[in-house]
Structures are given as structure tokens and as C-alpha cells.
Amino acid sequence: MYNEIFKDLPCLIHPGNLKTLVQRWLEEDTPNFDYGGLVVGEKEEKAILLCKSPGVLAGTPFFDAVFSELGCSVTWCVSEGNFISAVSQPYVQTAVVMGKARNILLGERVALNCITRASGIATIARRLTEKVQKEGWHGEIAGTRKTTPGFRMVEKYALLVGGISQHRYDLSSMVMLKDNHIWSAGNITQAVHKARKACGFSMKIEVECQTIEEALEAASAGCDIVMLDNMKPQELHPAARQLKSEFAQIVVEASGGVTEENVTEYMGPHVDVISLSLVTQGYQCLDFSLKVLGANSRSSILHAQPE
Fold first, then answer.
1. pLDDT tens for the chain, residues 1 to 307
2. How many whole angstroms separate alpha carbon 131 and alpha carbon 26?
3. 175-177 and 92-100: which strand pairing?
4. Hey, which residues are catalytic here?
5. In angstroms, what CA-CA distances link 267 with 163, 164, 222?
């Protein structure tokens, strides 16, 4: 069952930013004439959102915002974050959209793009969350900044619905010094000290390290988080143990080469965070479709009733 702690997640989304985002999406999809809209006109219609593959429902605030911008209403039959079991039947009725025919169809693809992708991300995130719970690991799984340009808000939100950390949202959310920063600055210590002068006490600094020697230098320089990057589990755990023994307060993150299949190998008593990009780069979308009932109602589609 969907964890109650996430029920207020839509409150994270700034209404003004969401409206701007939706307007950009709609303009991209219909930059001038709406030829299909001419065909269907402005008669009031009802459309049913159908889910045709199993997974976690996510992205409802974006789906709602698309249709709200077009003067349509949405009533949900399944709550955000719940698992939809579209296995024993060909589809699960998920929502009802009401509005003018042309407006429903103007928003159809944009809204579906949001919910299919967000639900795909939340589904894999939920599977990872369940692995953490099964292992009894103290740490957390996190996404990365490897997101789709212009679609980050949706993807980061979906990670949270699935129960994992979004990691830093953008370059301004946390200082992360990667290999290119270090090479350009000269060394790890200089890079950390220079960053600290700018960000002060209120922002964390993370340093990407390839070896235990680099990790110890980063911790000595005063960083808050050390990323042990591209280390195999047999290298990772001894390095994390040594780092924690000398710097108990440091947060240790493992990254690089982590998959859904091997993620448990990276879990350990000295590793606090495991980050992986596949949650926003290698996920499978859920299969949704939106069907207008029209005057000649499709007999195979029953009218969905809200919870």
C-alpha cells in the first residue's frame, strides 16, 4: 500500500512553475493550428484513462495540470502511488476526464507522456525501495541529475513517489566536485576549500573519488559526502569501512556500475547512499491510453467510478 508519508508530495510542486511547464509542453505539441480540434469541435465529452500494464501510478499532478490548463476536469479512480495490477484483466480504469472534445484531445498526448514516464520511474523506484526493506539496510537509494532536459521536475517527483531519494535537484542544490573540477582546480583540497568559501556552512559538499587515498583527502579537506565512484563491491566495502573509521561523520555514497540486479551487493554497514542513473535513463514506461466514450459509447469500456 502507498506509504502515507508521501500523500502530500504534490505540495512540493510550485504552482507557477507547473503552469509555465505545462504551457510550454502544450505549445510544443500544438504550435499553431489544431486541425483535429476542427473535426471534433467543442461538444462536452467524457474520456477514460486506462492502465494496461502493472506498476505504480505516479505523475497525477502533471496530468491534472495539463487538463486544468485546457478547462477540463479529472477524477481519479486510483490514488497516486498505489500499485495498479493490470494483469488479470486487459486494463484498469484509472481516471475520468471531462471537458470539450477538442480540449481533451489537445491535452491527451502531453498528459499521457507525463503519466506513462512518471509511473515507469516510480515503478522501478518502488522495486528498489522493496530491496532496501528486504535487506534491512540503513541507507537510501538515490537517483542522479541524469534526467531529460525540460522534464526533470516530473522525473525527480516520480522518484519520490517510488520511495527513493532524488539526490540533488540541480547544480545549485548541493556542491558536487567531480573529476573535471578537481583536475581544473589542481587538487581535491584546493577544490573543497574554494567551494566552502562560496557555499559556507549552509550547503553540503560532495567529492567524487576513485581511490581510498582521494576519499581520505576529501574528508580531511572538510567535505560532507564522499562518493566512491566505480568501485566494485569487493573494493567498496573495505574502503567505506576505513573511511568511516577515520571520519565517522562522513556520508559515504556508492555509485557507478550499479544495476537493479546487483544493487544489494553495494549495500553495507558503512555505505549510506547508493546512486544509480537507470531510474531516469533505463526505465520502462507504463502503458496508458485515453479513450473518449462519445455518443456511441464503446461497449468494452465501463464507466469508471471514483474511490
1. 445 666 789 999 999 999 999 999 999 999 999 999 999 999 999 999 999 999 999 999 999 999 999 999 999 999 999 999 866 677 899 999 999 999 999 999 999 999 999 999 999 999 999 999 999 999 999 999 999 999 999 999 999 999 999 999 999 999 999 999 999 999 999 999 999 999 999 999 999 999 999 999 999 999 999 999 999 999 999 999 999 999 999 999 999 999 999 999 999 999 999 999 999 998 999 999 999 987 555 545 554 443 3
2. 38
3. unpaired
4. 146
5. 17, 15, 25
Place of cell 546512486: 275
* Cell numbers found for residue 243: 573511511
Residue 174: what residue type? M
Model-level pTM?
A: 0.92
* Tally of CB atoms within 10 A around 141: 25
Measured CA distances, 69 to 12, 110, 281 (Å) = 19, 12, 29
* CA 271, chain centre distance (Å): 22
Query: What is the rounded distance in angstroms from the CA atom of residue 89 to the CA atom of residue 142?
Result: 33
C-alpha grid cell, residue 194? 574554494
Q: Which residue has 491535452 as its cell numbers?
A: 107
Which residue carries 486494463 as its cell? 91
Residues comprising the chain, all counted = 307
- CB burial of residue 210 (10 Å; 0-12, 13-18, 19+): middle
Stretch (H or E) spanning 47: strand 44-51
Q: How far apart are CA 19 and CA 212, in angstroms?
A: 46
